[in-house]
Specification:
Helix content is 44%, strand content 15%. The chain is α/β, with parallel strands linked by helices. Helix 4 runs antiparallel to helix 14, helix 5 packs across helix 14 and helix 16 packs across helix 17. The longest helix has 22 residues. The protein binds pyridoxal-5'-phosphate. The site of pyridoxal-5'-phosphate (PLP) has 15 residues, from helix 6. Pyridoxal-5'-phosphate binds next to helix 6.
């Protein structure tokens, strides 16, 4: 390690408080200091080359080096580095990006608002739903339903909506308006002999029972990712979305589809909503919108909701919401460039092509003694680790088997993400077949290493 890296690590330990990190472990071990990246590879301060099997945080769609994105940012910084979108001011790049996104959005969206993160997009959506319901004369419709283990962000509202107990513990959350329905993990939670379709119908019944218990007149919205990412790359079981959407429609519940991870090609279509036939009323997106080169997110919705916003704005005199950096010119310019690149390289076609190899290699790990279930789509795959796959007996959580696999993978030069004993594998969308072979070989090696410890 060179002296600068050592100094960076000391500085980091001394002052930098890390999100989503075991603080004690950080104080003792320090960070992995990532110094640079190229293609699907990242490099750390110890000179290790690591394949990024988690795309940063599910966001680095085009890898770690792209001249065109860098130039787009530079050009915009030299032309107009900032312009507010408050007080009816605008700038050409954000207007163009709005038109472009609405032109490609799923489900007939007409309006778009910009923010800087997925959390802010979803938080804005919650506020807009409450705002519109007030205009409609239904101010009591405030409850928002998410799913156990779902993830929609980290503001007070979005983390309340997320079903992640460790993000609620000690914070006095969730807020009372936020409710959670069951996690559709067929492998773990199906009853012996229950088909996927029967399991999906049971999940939808349970959701409907929750709506009825809470009082449908108080339920405003249901938020869901097409496939759960933060809860560990969980693909929806057969029939799940048909059954769930029937309940959503029956009770006039607003349906927000969170495309923060699935959007822009991850599942082999532009949107996860396309992959699973979802009909959203609102769509949030972020991450790959700018290929992660600049923080930007977007919330899209329909004219119907916009009309209610207009009514309130007429009454109050202003639509009282917004962030300084909403629709940042550099973010807009970078996103437009990213969308151009996606078209030019036919990113969706590429994902579909390499996905065959990716899923084949992932499926081959199903036979490993640690692995109970492998499920994926596009370049998005989840692995369930179990002590006994057939009897569905999990490992003692204290063994931290998922973390063990993650650590061994890192030692072998592959970054994966363990969420409990589920492993999430989602490399940058530009990954090629050779890199897929290398990544999956390293993954297999990490499973062997972990098996040697726990067997
Ligand atoms: N929604 C989903 C599905 C996510 O995975 C995330 C972050 O990982 C968010 C929302 C929050 O996005 P951000 O971290 O940009 O606030």
């Amino acid at each position: 390690m060179n002296v600068d890296a050592k100094r960076s690590i000391e500085q980091d330990i001394a002052h930098h408080v890390h999100p989503q990190t075991n603080l004690r472990q950080h104080a003792e071990k320090g960070p992995t200091m990532i110094t640079h990246g190229k293609g699907v590879f990242i490099y750390d301060s110890e000179g290790r080359e690591i394949i990024d099997g988690f795309s940063g945080l599910g966001c680095v769609s085009l890898g770690y080096h792209n001249e065109r994105l860098a130039e787009a940012a530079m050009r915009q910084m030299n032309t107009l580095p900032f312009a507010p979108t408050f007080y009816n001011r605008s700038h050409p790049r954000v207007a163009e990006l709005g038109e472009r996104l609405i032109g490609m959005a799923p489900g007939g969206m007409n309006r778009v608002m910009f923010q800087c993160s997925g959390s802010e997009a979803n938080d804005t959506a919650i506020k807009l739903i409450w705002y519109a319901n007030t205009a409609r004369g239904e101010p009591q419709r405030r409850k928002i339903i998410g799913r156990i283990r779902g993830y929609h962000g980290n503001t007070i509202a979005t983390v309340s909506l997320s079903g992640q107990p460790h993000m609620h513990a000690k914070f006095g959350l969730p807020l009372p308006e936020f409710k959670h329905t069951e996690l559709p993990n067929y492998y773990r939670f199906h009853i012996d002999g229950e088909s996927e379709e029967e399991f999906s119908a049971r999940m939808a019944r349970s959701f409907e029972e929750l709506v009825l218990r809470e009082g449908p007149e108080t339920v405003a919205a249901f938020f869901a990712e097409p496939a759960i990412s933060g809860g560990g790359a969980l693909m929806p079981p057969k029939g799940y979305w048909e059954e769930m959407q029937a309940v959503i429609r029956k009770y006039g519940i607003t349906f927000l589809v969170d495309e923060v991870v699935c959007g822009f090609g991850r599942t082999g279509n532009m949107w996860g909503a396309e992959t699973w036939g979802l009909k959203p009323d609102m769509v949030s997106c972020a991450k790959a919108l700018s290929a992660a080169f600049f923080p930007i997110s977007a919330l899209m919705f329909k004219d119907e909701l916009y009309a209610e916003m207009m009514r309130n704005s007429d009454e109050v005199g202003v639509f009282g919401h917004g962030y300084t950096y909403a629709g940042h010119p550099v973010g807009a310019a970078v996103s437009l460039q990213a969308l151009d690149i996606y078209d030019e390289i036919d990113l969706i076609g590429h994902v579909r092509k390499v996905s065959k190899r990716f899923l084949e290699r992932c499926d081959a790990m199903q036979d490993h003694p640690l692995v109970a279930e492998v499920r994926g789509v596009g370049l998005f795959c989840g692995f369930e680790l179990m002590r006994d796959a057939k009897a569905r007996i999990p490992f003692d959580p204290a063994w931290k088997v998922g973390a063990l696999v993650q650590d061994f993978a890192h030692d072998r030069g592959l970054y994966l993400r363990a969420i409990g004993d589920r492993i999430s594998f989602m490399p940058p969308l530009i990954i090629n077949e050779e890199e897929i072979d290398l990544a999956t070989e390293r993954f297999k090696g990490a499973l062997d290493d972990a098996w040697a410890v726990v067997k």
